[in-house]
Amino acid sequence: MKAIIVKPPRPGAEITEIQRTPGKGPVLVKIVENGICGTDREIVNGTFSGAQAPPNEDYLILGHEAIGVVEKIEKGVEDLEVGDLVMPINRRGCGHCLNCLVGRPDFCETGGFVEAGITGMHGFMVEYFYDDPKYLVKVPKAIADIAILAQPLSDLEKSIEEILTVQRRVPVWTCDDGTYNCRTALVIGSGAIGTLVTLLLRTYGFKVIVANRRDPTPREKEIFFGVGAKWYNSANGYEELARDMGGADIIFDTTGRVDVVKSALTALRINGILGLFGFSEAERAEFTSADLKQLIYRNIAVVGLDNGQKPHFQQALVHLAAWKAMWPDVTSKLITRVVEINNKDTVLDALRHRSPGEIKIKISWQ
Amino acid sequence: MKAIIVKPPRPGAEITEIQRTPGKGPVLVKIVENGICGTDREIVNGTFSGAQAPPNEDYLILGHEAIGVVEKIEKGVEDLEVGDLVMPINRRGCGHCLNCLVGRPDFCETGGFVEAGITGMHGFMVEYFYDDPKYLVKVPKAIADIAILAQPLSDLEKSIEEILTVQRRVPVWTCDDGTYNCRTALVIGSGAIGTLVTLLLRTYGFKVIVANRRDPTPREKEIFFGVGAKWYNSANGYEELARDMGGADIIFDTTGRVDVVKSALTALRINGILGLFGFSEAERAEFTSADLKQLIYRNIAVVGLDNGQKPHFQQALVHLAAWKAMWPDVTSKLITRVVEINNKDTVLDALRHRSPGEIKIKISWQ
Amino acid sequence: MKAIIVKPPRPGAEITEIQRTPGKGPVLVKIVENGICGTDREIVNGTFSGAQAPPNEDYLILGHEAIGVVEKIEKGVEDLEVGDLVMPINRRGCGHCLNCLVGRPDFCETGGFVEAGITGMHGFMVEYFYDDPKYLVKVPKAIADIAILAQPLSDLEKSIEEILTVQRRVPVWTCDDGTYNCRTALVIGSGAIGTLVTLLLRTYGFKVIVANRRDPTPREKEIFFGVGAKWYNSANGYEELARDMGGADIIFDTTGRVDVVKSALTALRINGILGLFGFSEAERAEFTSADLKQLIYRNIAVVGLDNGQKPHFQQALVHLAAWKAMWPDVTSKLITRVVEINNKDTVLDALRHRSPGEIKIKISWQ
Amino acid sequence: MKAIIVKPPRPGAEITEIQRTPGKGPVLVKIVENGICGTDREIVNGTFSGAQAPPNEDYLILGHEAIGVVEKIEKGVEDLEVGDLVMPINRRGCGHCLNCLVGRPDFCETGGFVEAGITGMHGFMVEYFYDDPKYLVKVPKAIADIAILAQPLSDLEKSIEEILTVQRRVPVWTCDDGTYNCRTALVIGSGAIGTLVTLLLRTYGFKVIVANRRDPTPREKEIFFGVGAKWYNSANGYEELARDMGGADIIFDTTGRVDVVKSALTALRINGILGLFGFSEAERAEFTSADLKQLIYRNIAVVGLDNGQKPHFQQALVHLAAWKAMWPDVTSKLITRVVEINNKDTVLDALRHRSPGEIKIKISWQ
Predict the structure, then answer these.
(1) What is the complex's ipTM, to 2 decimals?
(2) InterPro entries in the record, alphabetically (chains A, B, C, D) (predicted)?
(3) More exposed terminus of chain A, fewer Cβ within 10 Å: N or C?
(4) What is the pLDDT of residues C61-75, one digit of tens each?
């Protein structure tokens, strides 16, 4: 059966025939489509150091964003039927630590978890795979067109949930009408993650300001203004935002750049929180003890955010459905391209390079 | 301008002309439609003891479920524009207790709150009213057809939120995949409230069993089975549910009948919670000290549930949007009838009697 | 070695020689003293239906309140040394459900837990026992005289923790100074449990009213007034408390009598909570649907409370230490009698009958 | 009446006679003793930029740590009597923001709060002051000798409460026995704050490692080893702690030095939290984007910690009482010196310089 495989740490990917259906469990899933994200490209380009084939195997099937259809199912499995659309959860627990035992390997303490298509477990860019219903999320067919976004969105659902949990440290962080409507979130970066988290924060009632070091493209205007967010051109830093726009109560960084984060921190209000979501490497910024003092005087929290689990996939699907109904002109712009698995070169090219303006690109298997 | 008024405690309602636009605040709202609920009918029929005109007025404008369009707006009001669809919040705080100060009069401690169309404040069955943006919730136009349901749904959003908060008393009440998918909620009653809370509990991932003392109607089958819920005929009590179906982790009562609740309690599992939502009056049930002991041995909680506020209205609208996308065949059945304000007799009749099978009936003003 | 054994469901207890040191684990504990509580007496008198010997054994060593000294310890055990004073935890988990896996068998969902000296596991009225350090709590020697109270107090620590967790359902349940000082707790019953929970609630800052159907004894006056609590003679019910004393925000029942609870509920304030702790059997009370409606209108919660675990034992010891320093005249009255294990008849008599005015009676083994 | 006054921003302090009793409210308090802390010295030495006299006054009475005795009381004040020992709360709210309205000016959002003896409000180094009972905490006389520590300890009570609230972001952060006994806290700095937080963390069940860049003094050994804490000589950084001692789940910094914090972060475990408590100024440290990535990969939170309020004062007193009973040899070492108000030069000298080994120094007024 056809699969897209990689052999980390070597760069490169190939679409090839494999002999054995990967995975285990009582449900056989036929793949419908995959999403491609930045991590896939880092693996394919050989720049993601954590990529690893499963134990005793010499290749890794790529792909951690997938939708499939239930093809066969063993007797006794409840809650799923042949023909159901499903998404597999990509991270699987270590089996030992308490967080993994309660189904939350996003907080695994041993580091012994695996990630499908990334490290230690085959991914889902393959015609068929077996799985356990515990790791399959049912997808409402009415939103099949955008449901692939539930995988990246699940990480953001978990992130906002974690941010709101941390903010319970503030006795009253809601507004005088019980909502978050008076609170402002600053989203740094306007890519796929910045886009999805903006929609999510708007859904929670926050005012949202999206920042990038330039003016928005026409498509960005349609998306961000279409959900009631504002745009901030951060080419000159964040002082204007802090001084004239009242600053922000949440800063959600999707860049991972420490220099950007340091600059944006000046705009974080009293009792605010900085969420770190993006990855970068080499930038530097100097902090002084006086910077730490500001975190204390202003009661600021910082939190590293990572990986959603099954509850977050499920909530992501609910939110995607809501967005499709509320903001059809926006959701129709989120899947920026679909490539057919049979167009090998196009697929492999898409796995190597991000297209300009790309939000989400899908590989279709059907 | 036209309004539907009552003069409690006298029964009866009339559609009449009034002189002064009710309400106060910088936003003038033109009514689009009202929903009718059981409380409206109790007021009209003179059986709701709490009904009361505003201070120094001799009539009460009825109506606490409403959607209107912003007609005029004073300068300086943010976040709203002429032409926006809005829903008014129906309960307004006492202005004194800490819960009201933080925008949560659902937990008012003084009892000094007012409720539009019910007690101490004019309602929204009137051509125009003034209001403060603090009490207006923006309605996405794409779901205008079902958005009136956000008012009753807001009470249920708050109820499930409160239930989940109470259940944090159990160290791990989620399943081994981090979701609520392994937990069962028993909803007693299949009316409007039972229907909406079933959809909501399904959205949170719970298995749901809807109970009534009969088999479901064809429409009930379409709705409840359409969202993956089960039906339980409780004509013979709840023993079969307790014995053969594993019982329930949540019992959500919409009947208010103490005899029904007592019978259903036998089906409540360890660490379970009973939510009380419905009202009734005269039924009786005898409890023994041994019944209390069962609440202790089984770590059971009971909680009285009432009234949603602005955050719950907002979340209700998000959920309605999601349902419209995910379950269009179900949501299309939730508005069971629309009556035109100009058909006076039909409107007044609808205010007196519930139609068989009614979920939500709307009065259209346009 | 000497042990106090029972053979449930037969009544009676005997002090006898047994052959094998009970328990398992790397720590050998020499018993110093046991506490006697109502459950012990119910087992001895044959009225506690749940009593059960361990699997494949024909007797049960009694005793779930104990302090011992570490006599021997296997290599590799951290955090304990020979000579340390320790208390064993009495309930041990089922090993399967998620709550037991995270160390909280007080919320065991399978019912498969055991309770030392009560059901399925030997107790601690025995010269020596083996145990795992996981189940041993280190006791500060400076409070050895009253430390036995940490076992019953652990149940109350957990109960108040659970009550406060449930009350997070109310957006603001603290006072305008951030404390609970403006909140009143009504404790029904002035026995050992009523006494300990009064001290605990005072420690949390609550005003406390202790109710019993008579005036207080001189000793009760010294204890309750000594910690700033009030007394309420409930011989004529709770209407006076509701009407003239402002009612209560917490009702903590230690009687288990449904008739008493029903009467006291009239005094429970808006947003209040009723905690059920005591056991009784045969009393009856009739509730109407209108009573349920009151729970809704007043946002009331009810919660069954049971069993503390290791975190609660540890906190109980901290609180006992605080009380010993703050209220020495009160804590000196809490151990009402000590009997020597060698006075067999006295011990067996104490296991059958509660002395008047008893708060805690200890069996000394040294 | 006698008072110790300063005239910020000018350095210097004087003991002088003032004409008017400061403060307002129905309770007149006669001062018994004050504590001196680092902030007092910074004000006296002119290095604390925030110091400010009350509006329209040209001097500021110093002192935010105080115990007094109730000298007179207006009719109608409950819960206090003439002769009671009391501590005044030092920070008072802005009167406007929601956090101040609910009694939590530690999270004031306007910055409009005042701090007695520091900014905008007279302090308590004065023979008498008036106050409102809302801001007075009753002190158990049995712990009068160490109760002055409740002021600095209140900040730490709040800090640990906030840390534990933030950590609820981790689904299971307790150990497999439900406690924190398996978690390690690293306290950086062994001064007064490091000492008090060590005792507090031990009370919560944490293992504690105290770090300083040298070996402990004999007194430090007695205190830290006496409560079961360990010592880590950090002269060579924190690598050994990370590598050989398993790292830490909490890092509690009392130095405020960004270079120290950066070095210690390498020892913070997965799901860990860094609490920032101390102030410093000029040190620098360079962070790279890869450092941020570590915060994400390891699910780390950072939180700025500041100021306890009335609930924390009350809990601090309970803990001090517990420590006095459990660890008498440790608590007897916490007050390192008492100076008499009549020895002007000694008092002024103590206000300028910290003695070597000082934990808490008191000024006695009687």
Answers:
(1) 0.97
(2) ADH-like_N (IPR013154), Glc_1-DH_arc (IPR026583), Glu_dehyd_C (IPR031640), GroES-like_sf (IPR011032), NAD(P)-bd_dom_sf (IPR036291), Zn_alcohol_dh (IPR050129)
(3) C
(4) 999 999 999 999 999
